Amino acid sequence: MNVVIIGAGYVGLVTGCCLAEAGHRVVCVDHDAEKLAGLRSGRLPFHEPELVTILGEQLASGRLLFEDSVARAMPNADLVFLAVGTPSQTDGSANLENLLRCANELAATAFSDCMVVVKSTVPVGTGDRLEALLNENRDQHSGHPRIRVVSNPEFLAEGRAVQDFRHPDRIVIGANDAGSAAALAQLYAPFDVDGMRLMFMDRRSAEFAKYACNAMLAARISMINELAGLASGFGADIEAVCGVLKGDPRIGGSYLHPGVGYGGSCLPKDLSALITCAKTIGEPADMLCSTQRVNNRQGRRLLEFIREYFRGELRGKRIAIWGLSFKPATDDVRAAPSLALIRGLLNEGALVSAYDPVAMKAASLALGATPVVFGASAMSVCEGADALVLMTEWDEFKAPDFKALAMCMQGSMVFDARNLYQGSMLRQYGLQHFALARCARPKGDNAGLSGRTSPVRPETAQAQAHGGEKPYS
Ligand SMILES: NC(=O)c1ccc[n+]([C@@H]2O[C@H](COP(=O)([O-])OP(=O)(O)OC[C@H]3O[C@@H](n4cnc5c(N)ncnc54)[C@H](O)[C@@H]3O)[C@@H](O)[C@H]2O)c1
Question: So where's the catalytic machinery, residue-wise (predicted)?
Fold first, then answer.
């Protein structure tokens, strides 16, 4: 089929490359000229495993082209994907500006009957709105809209997007007419190898399904983080508890990793958008609001612990950060917990050095002009550091040379926001370990701690709270 994709970002580009690989003819349109120039010469604008190879192969095959103009891309198109960003507005609602601009461009473009497929995550009812807009000035001889809009939300995860697209768990097709559903089934046939992947439903249900999935994932993350906080308060080991949870088939094993909370370009913004939409139908969305509150608190807790460790004085303290992307295998730093932490540390006068295998450029752009020093290696940013904070569980951070780390740091504390290390291992090298997921909230009243001359470690405070026992490693 002839496919046009508007928006060559994480979703649009993966979609375009994988559809071309499956034999479709694809034109990707983007308004970012620099991005297009890079793509035409086989360079990716972001880090995504395996994608660069497919890009090169499909450029060479001639099945994948890049365009800056919707009008030039449209002749012969069987369907048009909209895969532009739908970021949060200040009130939390989804900003549909990009999407509507594309729809207006499409409406102004003379093209024959065609299908518009919305891949962007959009509030329920956006498909109705787009269909009305696209057909406004078109001849409606048949009584049916000539431009049909289908919802086809995307479920790929950055870092494994190619694998997710090639081998999807499910492909959701929200179509209000049988012809559109059949056309999408034809497009996706190469990916529906066992005939079990396609899920057909009406457009509104498909739009909502995307938000429902992200709401469930976010809720699971906040729930395990809240349970982790409770566990440490009660003197229970959350790792052991997670094993019990995972052993229950009704609960399942995924998304049960306590840590610093969710970030990235989807969960925070989609939750905010859903909460905002819920208000418009008079629903309080209590669970969604709690999920969001727990997540926001989780990020703040880490800064609170670091501050408490340094007895409230972060000015001049050298803090090294390992990991900037919101998760491993991507350079996406949108709503990354690391950036919030860095801003918090800088605000309090700390000196921050940071290293990430691929996300330093993106982080530097996102942070703007700051005194953060980005280092060439994990060890180099720890030279003379008073503490290290592990923020992203990249493979290269999983088994670092702890001996070298202990030697190059000035201090000894490793704040582990991802529950990656075993304290016993670190202690062998004279390092201390603070696992965010295994430590209770710091007490509001620090009066009992303030008179000390040596730094009060969360480990010590925690051990005291549990009669000298250490509830975490
Ligand atoms: N990133 C993910 O993991 C993911 C997963 C599932 C769904 N989604 C959803 O998919 C959508 C796209 O997300 P993304 O991460 O790919 O965004 P992105 O920011 O990486 O890419 C969007 C692209 O659209 C281009 N663009 C914006 N307006 C345009 C216009 N008017 N004309 C032409 N190009 C335009 C931008 O230049 C950019 O290249 C969002 O709604 C997002 O919520 C994202």
Answer: 266
Residues of the chain scoring pLDDT < 70: 110-112, 139-145, 439-473
Beta bridge partners of residue 174, listed in sequence order: 151, 201
The preferred substitution site among 72, 265, 269, 331 for testing ligand 1, maximizing ligand atoms within 8 Å of CB, is: 265
Domain boundaries 2-201, corresponding CATH code: 3.40.50.720
| Domain positions in the chain | 2-201, 209-473
CATH homologous superfamily for the domain 209-473 = NAD(P)-binding Rossmann-like Domain (3.40.50.720)
Query: What is the distance in A from the centroid of ligand 1 to the CA of 411?
Result: 42
β-sheet with 351-355: strand ranges across? 373-374, 351-355, 318-322, 387-390, 413-416, 432-435
Catalytic residues: 266
Query: Is 317 annotated as belonging to a binding site?
Result: no
Q: Is 429 helix (H, G, I), strand (E, B) or coil?
A: coil
Ligand 1, residues 84, 86, 172: which to mutate, most atoms within 8 A of Cβ? 84
Distance CA 44, CA 399 (A): 29
Measured in Å, residue 145 CA sits from the centre of ligand 1 at 26
